[in-house]
Amino acid sequence: MGLDKLDHRGDQSDHRGDQSDHRGDQSDHRATVSSVLVANRGEIALRVFRTARVLGLRTIAIYTDLDAAAPHVREADEAVRVDSYLDIDAVVAAAQRAGADAVHPGYGFLSERAEFARALEEAGIRLVGPSAAVMEQMGRKDAAREVAERAGVPVVPSYSLETPADQLAFPVLVKAASGGGGKGMRVVRSAAEYADAVAAAAREARSAFGDDTLLIEKYVESGRHIEVQVMGDRHGRAVHFHERDCSTQRRHQKVLEEAPAPTIGAELREAVTAAAVALAEQVGYTGAGTVEFLLDNATGDFYFLEMNTRLQVEHPVTEMVHGDHDLVADQLRMAEGAPLAEGGQVRGWDGHAIEARVYAEDSFNGFLPQAGRAGVVHWPGAHGGRASRVRVDHALESGQVVSTSYDPMLGKVIAWGRDREQARRALVAALDDTAILGLTTNAGFLRALAASDEFRYATIDTAWLDQHEVPAPDPTVARLIGALVVATRLSGSGHPFAADGWRASRLTEGLRVDLDEELRVLVDADSSTIDGRELRILERDALDDGAERLRVEVDGERHVAFVAVSPSQVEVVHRGQRHVFERPDPNASHGEVRGEGSVTAPMPGTVLQVLVAEGDTVEAGQSLGMMEAMKMELTLKAPYSGTVTTVAASVAQQVALGDVLFEVTD
Questions:
Q1: Over 70: is that where the pLDDT of 593 sits?
Q2: Fewest Cβ atoms closer than 10 Å to its Cβ: which of 10, 197, 240, 485?
Q3: Which residues pair with 140 in a beta bridge?
Q4: Residues near 128 by beta carbon (within 8 Å), at least 6 away in sequence
């Protein structure tokens, strides 16, 4: 399989030793895998294809009708259509039909399904991952807990489900024994809440995983999420690639991840990594896996949480601090049966890396999922020169439709620096240079979080984002830059009409954020004064569809912004945050004005419940119905007390953003 083709950049000798120590002799295994099918989509499929291409392997994609023109389909040497990425029989049949030697599951979908691993085993196809038996044990939190105890790894103190609520030491954590990602998980702080929380967690776990088995454990109020990257061979040995810190999370969903962990010392690092290796060897783990631990800030104790039997979303930070080491290449070698050589433990690391997950969601409006067609998409390039560098793993292109059918992650921006502060600054700069027009994302939220003192000084624990609000970015500078772009386009046209048909004489009507706010723009050569603020464009680069990337000086401070102008609005992405401003047109109709009692769909999705009928009397805040999108449930509530006059929603109905579902009359 030719791993000698891999390019491991940088001088690694001071930090990692000779890589050949832990890779072993490759000569007996190069011919074993010649083609690999990726049972996934999006950026992880592209990530695996990138390594496979370097290794000279034939690449095979699968796709659904929705993804027929997706980047991962175009990138592969061959593509096979399936009805669903979750259809085990269809995916195995696709691998057989394409003649794949191995299947890489990526993450999500079938990646941790023991049934999938077993079906591949029965078909004589290698899974790039552990065996079905191992996956079955480690995929369940209760079984994994037993393995950890046998390996001598500390586990979180727990209770039996039969323990009466009044005998529990609250707070406790109720969580699903199957699956992960925060689903089927509830923090319970009193006996009065316990029964309802158990019922809700079981219901969610049954819906998400088909299994409502629950665990009850001590809840650590202030903790850090530490995880260790391990790699195991088929000969019973495992090594670790040190740890990551994933404490910056919201509702158990990771937001920022970094390597190494910034708040642990050498002694704790040794204990945590040794525990991870012991667990992997105890269960006979093969391939890449992640052992997750919770560090109790109050006591300094650490506890085993779970093992992810796959490659993690955040694996790039580990690769970057180990000299751009390729974990996917290691996975493929382990699938071939290659051994980890004696004495091959990776030693040390180089620098610091931080990853930000870019999602299609409105972080400053309840983190609601977003969907639709992306306009111009601009991912960042290199930032910080030789002292730092940026990597982007993504599968989003300009003009691509983002659907609610799949996970809302659009890509990952990862920054490396000589130390943590350099990496953090490089990440902030990279997010400044990230823009997705036409679709709201969390990039502005990520940028604000990475720039915060709390993240800078590593004081954020696993509960911080659930207890604190990240302030929404001030739109003032974005509005000024948008006004400046409109002004310069009009004044530079040489005649009273701009290219888009707007009269220069109407320039003073400016941009509006709402119907009461206006900006008056005065243009003077290369600089403009807007509301008493001095603006000057330093650089102006044309993008697709008339959009622009600009470097602008505002009162002496430099900013990067992306601007798209249309007859009805001006769209500005500044510091990652998307702002949309109306262009006032006194001759245009403002359209239908909805009443204050209209309850509209805050996101595209599916109606799950309708709880009222026309004529019903409701109280303010009463639930009218429930909808779901991207595995997120949202309750639709009455805006005030009154009578339900319209019910336009029905169960299983597909609704678009802004559709009127209910109307309540005061």
A1: no
A2: 10
A3: 178
A4: 36, 102, 103, 104, 105, 287, 331, 332, 334, 335
What are the counts of helices (DSSP H) followed by strands (DSSP E) for the chain?
Answer: 17, 38
**Angstrom distance (rounded) from CA 473 to CA 633:** 26
Where would I find the H helices in 410-568? 420-432, 443-451, 453-456, 464-467, 476-491
- Local confidence band at 20 (pLDDT 50, 70, 90 cut-offs): very low
Pairing of the two strands 642-647 and 126-127: unpaired
Torsion over CA of 220, 264, 20 and 388, rounded to 10 degrees? 110
Cis peptide upstream of residue 586 (ω within 30 degrees of 0): no
Query: For position 97, what pLDDT does the model report?
Result: 97
Q: Is the pLDDT of residue 604 over 80?
A: no
Q: Please tell me which residue in 140, 145, 250, 310 is annotated as part of the active site.
A: 310
Checking phi first, is residue 73 left (phi over 0); if not, alpha (psi -120 to 50) or beta?
alpha
Give 3-state DSSP helix, strand, coil % of the chain, rounded to 5.
Answer: 30, 30, 40
User: What is the C-alpha separation between 354 and 82, in angstroms, rounded?
Assistant: 35
pLDDT, average across residues 556-577: 93
Q: What is the mean pLDDT of residues 404-413?
A: 92
Residue 276 to residues 108, 232, 239, 326, Cα–Cα distance (Å): 22, 11, 9, 20
Q: Is 310 a catalytic residue?
A: yes
Neighbours of 619 (CB within 10 A): 10
Q: State the DSSP H helix or E strand holding residue 232, giving kind and residue range, or none if neither.
A: strand 223-232
Taking CA 614 as the corner, what is the angle to CA 609 and CA 618, rounded to the nearest 5 degrees? 75
Cα 303 from Cα 173, distance rounded (Å): 14
Cα dihedral: 109, 112, 117, 120 (round 10):
20
Identify which of 415, 428, 427 has the alpha carbon closest to the alpha carbon of residue 352: 415
Contact between 442 and 363 (Cβ < 8 Å):
yes
Burial zone of 269 (CB within 10 Å; 0-12 exposed, 13-18 middle, 19+ buried):
middle
Residues in Cβ contact with 50 at an 8 Å cutoff, skipping those fewer than 6 apart: none
The answer on pLDDT for 592 being more than 60 is: no
In this structure, what DSSP letter does residue 267 have?
Answer: H
Residue 402 is classified by DSSP as E
* Segments of 58-207 assigned E as strands: 58-63, 78-81, 102-104, 126-127, 158-159, 172-176, 185-188
Listed residue (619, 550, 600, 575) closest to 475, CA to CA: 575
What confidence tier does 9 reach under pLDDT thresholds 50, 70, 90? Answer: very low
Write the pLDDT tens digit of every residue in 453-497.
999 999 999 999 999 999 999 999 999 999 888 877 766 543 222
Instruction: Please check whether residue 102 is in contact with residue 126, taking contact to mean a CB–CB distance below 8 angstroms.
Output: yes
Q: What's the pTM value of the predicted model, to 2 decimals?
A: 0.82
CA 302-307-310 angle, to 5 degrees, is 140
CA-to-CA distance for 84 and 229, rounded, in angstroms? 30
